[in-house]
Design goal:
The chain has 228 residues and is of the alpha/beta class. Helix content is 29%, strand content 24%. A seven-stranded mixed sheet has the order 5-4-1-6-10-7-11, with helices on both faces. A two-stranded antiparallel sheet has the order 2-3. The longest helix has 18 residues. The chain is globular.
Amino acid sequence: MSRRIALIPAAGHGSRFGSATPKQYLLLNGRPLLAHTLDVLCGCAGIDEVAVVISPGDEWFDGFAWPARVQVLRVGGASRAESVANGLAALAADEDDWVLVHDAARCCLSPDALQRLLDEVGDDAIGGILAQPVADTVKQGKVGRIAATVPRDGLWLAQTPQMFRAGLLAEALQDAANPAITDEASAIELLGHAPRLVVGDAQNLKVTWPGDLALAGAILAARKGLQA
């Protein structure tokens, strides 16, 4: 039986966020943001292993308590792609194992969206990702002004997890320094494959800017209130 392994690259410093502390360690509702990200992955019975990739020089991880099932891999690279490639190598996963790469900063992933990905991609020949169809009108900008309106038909916003076989993903990330690789799906696409699109959840936002932290906190607090 192939395993399902969640791999969370968390070696970045969140330069766009503008904080001296990497955003994955900023407190959100009293806990580090990364802890919320790990909650849903560790709580999913369909996932066999959970591993976090951090920088070898990480000064923050050991200062917090993490779920017992979380494996820490201190092999983070200069980019997300390098961190994922290094993490795959450290895991020594079988080629047929499924790897679900999930952004550390997507702390509002819902159990329902995660299960939908597992269900819809589990028998796919290539793999797939969570994504949202674009609903807003899309503008192309140039020097602070609108240059064009881009048709939104067929456009999707990529989310995570992104779920692929370990062997295929390792092959796709052999040139991890390629700037065309912006996520795992783009690496798979460069091999000529077309990953499956699985409808995600608008609440599965990526905390990128300071204002996103408050929004994520509100989402998590609301969910906790519904569960109480």
